[in-house]
């Protein structure tokens, strides 16, 4: 069992590396014991420390974590912290986050926050996110398109297959990989045909993702 007093002292060290190490050592600590310690550095002057603390609230859920993360998502001046809060809310897997993440996606001006919100909406696996994610496919930001494709797979939005497949010949291999992964959760005849096509892709990671998805669907190449 990690020494909580030692971790608490480390979190008060003037050396930011000590504070980061202390946060890392909370992995083995129960959420109820970890969260009071995490809160010590939630307003740390060093951004990577704050960032790790925000993430830690997502993986050490207690009743306190949700309102803290919502507040950070909606009011922190640093877009990196808002993005971290959006990501952490996806780990909490609390359906109450749906409306807050939706608002962040539509209203936050920073693409990284919108990206994190889209990923977390996928983690919540709520079909209500379908319309928003379909709109994200029309974004000019490739990374948002990637997030939307993956999330549409997570929420099992079979109706999105047609639109997802318009990206199947995209030059960006990461987009093709996300398609291959998503189609493994969206079983239609078109999905299977597309996966057989992607299983012959020039990029090894796309090819591998397509083969795994076909296996998941009980299909062969």
Could you describe the 3D structure shown?
By secondary structure, this protein is mainly α. The chain has 3 domains: 1-62, Leucine-rich Repeat Variant (Alpha Horseshoe); 63-156, Alpha Horseshoe (Leucine-rich Repeat Variant); 157-221, Alpha Horseshoe (Leucine-rich Repeat Variant), CATH 1.25.10. 67% of the residues lie in helices and 0% in strands. It is built from 14 helices and no strands. It has helices spanning 4-11, 16-24, 31-39, 47-59, 65-75, 79-92, 97-107, 111-124, 130-136, 142-154, 161-164, 173-183, 189-198, 204-216. The longest helix has 14 residues, at 79-92. It starts with a helix and ends in a 5-residue tail after the last helix.
Topology:
Blueprint (H helix, E strand, L loop, with lengths): L3 H8 L4 H9 L6 H9 L7 H13 L5 H11 L3 H14 L4 H11 L3 H14 L5 H7 L5 H13 L6 H4 L8 H11 L5 H10 L5 H13 L5
Helix pairs in contact: 1-2, 2-4, 3-4, 4-6, 5-6, 5-7, 6-8, 7-8, 8-10, 9-10, 10-12, 12-14, 13-14
């Amino acid at each position: 069992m990690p020494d909580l007093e030692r971790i608490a002292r480390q979190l008060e060290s003037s050396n930011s590396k000590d504070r980061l190490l202390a946060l890392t050592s909370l992995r083995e600590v129960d959420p109820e014991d970890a969260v009071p310690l995490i809160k010590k550095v939630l307003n740390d002057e060093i951004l990577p420390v704050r960032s790790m603390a925000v993430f830690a609230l997502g993986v050490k859920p207690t009743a306190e974590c949700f309102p803290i993360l919502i507040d950070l998502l909606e009011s922190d001046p640093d877009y990196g912290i808002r993005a971290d809060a959006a990501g952490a809310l996806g780990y909490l897997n609390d359906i109450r986050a749906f409306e807050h993440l939706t608002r962040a996606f539509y209203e936050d001006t920073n693409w990284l926050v919108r990206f994190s919100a889209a990923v977390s909406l996928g983690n919540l696996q709520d079909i209500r996110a379908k319309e928003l994610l379909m709109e994200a496919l029309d974004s000019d930001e490739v990374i948002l398109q990637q997030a939307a494709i993956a999330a549409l797979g997570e929420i099992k939005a079979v109706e999105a297959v047609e639109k997802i497949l318009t990206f199947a010949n995209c030059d960006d291999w990461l987009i093709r990989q996300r398609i291959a992964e998503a189609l493994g959760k969206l079983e239609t005849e078109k999905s299977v045909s597309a996966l057989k096509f992607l299983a012959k892709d020039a990029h090894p990671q796309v090819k591998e993702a397509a083969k795994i998805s076909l296996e998941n669907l009980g299909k062969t190449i």
